[in-house]
Each structure stands twice: as C-alpha cells, then as structure tokens.
Amino acid sequence: MLQVSSCGIGVALRRLESTTMRNTCKKCLVLIFSIGGLIALFRTWSQETSSGVDLRPRHGSSVKTLLVGQIEDINGGYEDVAFRIKEQVARQLARNSCVCLADKETFQLPFSNLLFPRVWAHKLDTVFLESHPDPEGVKRHRAQEYSKSQSRSYSPADLPIVAKANSPLQYPTQGVEVRPLKTIILPGLGLKEGKKSMHTVSLTATLGTFDVAATVDSVSVKGEGEKHVILSSRDLSALNRLLQFVTYTNTVFHPKTADTVEFATEGHRSFFTIKVGHGSIPRLYNTGTQKEYNISALVTIACKTFIRYDKLKDLIDSIRQYYPTITIVIADDSEHPEPVTGPHIEHYIMPFGKGWFAGRNLAVSQVITKYVLWVDDDFIFSANTKLEKMVDILEKTSLDLVGGAVREVTGYTATYRHTLSVEEGGEEGDCLHVRSGYHHVIEDFPNCVVADAVINFFMGRTYKVQQVGFNPRMSRQAHLEFFIDALGSLHIASCSDVIVNHASKIKLPWGETDTQKAYQKFRYNNAESNIHNEDFYFKNRFKCQTGN
Ligand SMILES: *[C@@H]1O[C@H](CO)[C@@H](O)[C@H](O)[C@H]1NC(C)=O
C-alpha cells in the first residue's frame, strides 16, 4: 500500500506523471492493476449480492430540509419594522395563480378587432375535461405523472443557498464540477478566524467522499475516504495549507446531478454545490474551409408532401434555379405515391396519412448537413430566397433557428412572429400566453428580431431541431406545438428579408381541382382539435391558452 501512495494519487503529484514515473512505477502499476482487479472483482461480487444503487429520485433529502430551514431563519426577524407595498412592482411578481381571462370588449366597430386585437382566452381544462368520460380520473393521472416528472428533473443544484453574514468560512459558491466517480481538489476552502486553542472544520457530502492529497504536520484529519471529514490543528496557517489539498470523490454514479456539501466550523455552517456529471459532447460538422458559404454543403431542404405533386414539382424547379446541387429530402404519406426523382433528391414514402408532424420528423431525421431548411410543398423560391443570409446569422450568433418571410400571391408578406410565455397556475395547470410580436432587434442584423415562434419557413441547426422533434400525434394542423416544445432550448429569430413565395392558397371552391378538394378535406378536419386540447391539457399541463 505504501508503494501505491508513493506512486501518486492526487493532484500535487499529477505533475510528476512524466518521465520519472514511468520508470519507478512499473512495479506500482502492476500492484495497482492487481489491486484494481481485486476491487473490480469485489465490486462485481458485491453488486451481485447487494441490493444495488437506489435510483429513485431523491427529492426530500435531509440536506434540503436543512437548507429550507436555513432560509426561513434568515428571512425571519424585523417584524416590528413597518413597510408599505408598492403595488406597481408587487403586481409583477409571479403568484402561481394565473387566471384564464380574455380582454373585455370596450367598443365595437367594423374591423375593430383587426385594428386593436383583443386577447382571447381558451379554457383548455374545461373544454378537454367536459369531453372526457372520466374527468376526475384524468386529472388525478395528470397530477401523478406531473409529480413523477418533476422529481425526475429535480437537481439538488436548483436549491437556493444563502450565505450567512460574518462567516469565517471561505468556500467556492459556484463552478465546482466533477465527472461521475472521479476525484477533484475542492478549490478555495479556508478558515479565517482569530486565535483559538484549536481550529476545526468539517465537510459533509451525500454523493461522495473526502480525502486529502497531501499531509501537513500538526494538522489531524479524521474520516479520510468517508462522507464526513474533520480537519483540526492548533496552527491556523497549517490548517489552511491542508485545506488547499482537500479532495472530493464522487461515489454514486449519475450522468447529471449535484451534491450539496456542508462546510462547517464551530458555530457556523455553510453549503455549496458540486455539479456531478459527464461533460457535454460537442456536435461539430466538418463543412470544409471555403471563404464563401457553400450552401449545398451546409444546408439540406426538408419538406413534407401529401398528394400535391404539381406544387412539389414547381417548388423543386424553383429551388434548382438558385441551388442546383442542394439536397432535398421529401417525406410523402400520399395514398398512391408518385415517383419524385432527380439528382440530390431523397423521396421517403410513408404509410398513408401518417401526418404532418410525423413527416417533418422523418424528413428532418435524415438530414446530415449542419443546417436544415424547412419548406412547405407549396412554396416557390425566388431571387429573394437568399439562404446565405440565414446561414450567415446562424454562423455569427448564438441563434439555433431563424425564420424567414412568406409572400402570398396578394403581395402580403407574413413573418408570423410570436412570443410565448408560461405563467404558473398551481394544481389546475399553467397558462400559456401567445402574443404577436418579438423580444428585440438583433445587432448587425437590422431585419432580424428574436422571438419564440416563427413561420413555417425556417432554417435551424440540424441537431437542435432533431432534439426538439415534432410530436407525430399532430397529424393535420400543427405548428405552434413545435415551438412550445422548443421553449427554453432553442434561441429563435425571424428575418424579414429572406422571402419565399407561397403558391396560391386561397382558392375559390369552384376553381378547385380534385386533388385540391381531397387535400382540403384531409387536412382541415375538426376531429383533431380534441387531440390538440388533450396535448395542451395533459402533455404540457396547461389549463389555459390566451392569444391575440
Ligand atoms: C460545395 O459542396 C458540395 C457538396 O458538398 C460539393 O460537391 C461542391 O464541390 C462544393 N463547392 C465548392 C465550390 O466547393
């Protein structure tokens, strides 16, 4: 064992890891390997016999109770000091009690709704529960699923920690991270206090153990290799010296969690978190080193079609005028699929009527370029459809997805910019607020704004769009659903200067061809609206949607 420790486990010694180590430590390595082998053997044996690691979410740990109590203590006091509430400010605070209210109609004129759009409110809970045979049962089931999902996503790092005043303890408040089952030096630990006959600190963890990577004369250490360690010395400087060598080893594997460590001395306790987890693996695309953007190498066009082969052909022809070698991926769920062929075209035939979002999912899943451009099958490229502009903003900013504009035959150009916000609403569910508009203009890109939802014509980072995915339950009409799922994970913008044309949408009924009639009948049916209500009510746990 002596030989093993002289070989160097720990940080100060990592520097030695060069030449000398190779020669002197060959014997040690053999020893380490045999010990390692023994440990591995013991582990397999003990795993087989022991009951294993408890993977149930640890929501109500003792540390949590401690921390919550600590905050309550700190917030107490000063009851005898009077205060006046500032209504204007206080009203902005979330109260976990959103209400489903539409704007009142103040005056009524023809077109007044167009000029002054009022906010409408849709009571999803009422609408969905009324149509359900067992409303109480489905409510209970939603509550259970919600509570399970909350505890799965819970991280000890989410707990608020307050540092008390005048603590003699010095410790890191954030940025400490360890890989699962690995060891780190805890940075920044110290004790700053006056002369005492004995100086003592202790550290306590729940998901790992402490040790010291060095020894310092006159400092005693109790509990090395355990979850609770005590360091004490008559000499404060010596104690602080050893505190520079305290290590933490994670012992309970988890790919992403945190350990809350208590650091204490006589009369004082402090807490800090150590993030435990694998690092995130980069997803890089090798796109070559040309000076100008090579759109064919960077972008794939993805599209879903359903029996509108005439429209699709016009789209492909228009794309080829400007981008002759860009790959086009087409997902097709027509009943009698027709061949769509040509260079750089991938045509995927799906079971009949699989639907809109299923097709988007399939098309996007096949993309291997850095970016994917979503188009509808009735769009037409023009000289204004400059994909270079979308690539440029995605290359130069932190944005993940950028929408363009769609010009109707009437000349009207739509960007469909919306902001989304979710207001907490307690047990009944939350409120989703959808509003026309955007958050702010983007510097250096005066035609672009940041928003939460954009139009059907957008370019995104392929792997980010794939991560969010398209819920295949939404088979006919869906769009907002993707952006709700993307809330908090995609950074989204809308640029008004990248324009695609829309082949005529509004057709007079007597001018419709049979294909158009079949398409209309299939796409716009009402049976699906209940699926939308259910998805919002159950899957997203909304009780209300408002919009304008
Ligand atoms: C652009 O990319 C395509 C596809 O990777 C490639 O075939 C083509 O040679 C590239 N063009 C230039 C000018 O590098």
**What's the pLDDT, averaged over the residues?**
84
By secondary-structure content and strand pairing, the structural class works out as: alpha+beta
Give the count of helical stretches.
Answer: 17
Our Rg estimate from Cα atoms comes to 31 Å
Can you tell me the CATH topology of the domain at 295-547? Spore Coat Polysaccharide Biosynthesis Protein SpsA, Chain A
**Approximate helicity band:** 25-40%
What is the number of beta strands? 26
Bound molecules: 2-acetamido-2-deoxy-beta-D-glucopyranose
Amount of beta strand: 25-35%
Q: State the shape.
A: globular
CATH superfamily of the domain at 295-547: Spore Coat Polysaccharide Biosynthesis Protein SpsA, Chain A
Distance separating the two termini: 73 Å
- In terms of per-residue confidence, which ranges show pLDDT below 50 for 5 or more consecutive residues? 1-33, 36-49, 507-511
CATH level-two architecture of the domain at 295-547:
Alpha-Beta Complex
CATH class of the domain at 295-547: Alpha Beta
Largest sheet: 11 strands, mixed
Describe what this molecule looks like in 3D.
With 548 residues, this protein is of the alpha+beta class. Among the domains are: 159-277, Sandwich (Immunoglobulin-like); 295-547, Spore Coat Polysaccharide Biosynthesis Protein SpsA, Chain A (Alpha-Beta Complex), CATH 3.90.550. Helices cover 30% and strands 25% of the residues. It contains 17 helices and 26 strands. The strands form 5 sheets. Strands 13, 14, 15, 16, 17, 18, 19, 22, 23, 24 and 25 form an 11-stranded mixed β-sheet that branches. A 6-stranded mixed β-sheet has the order 3-12-11-6-9-8. Helix 7 crosses helix 17 (529-539). The radius of gyration is 31 Å and the shape is globular. The structure holds 2-acetamido-2-deoxy-beta-D-glucopyranose (NAG). Residues 290, 294, 296-297, 325 line the site of 2-acetamido-2-deoxy-beta-D-glucopyranose (NAG).
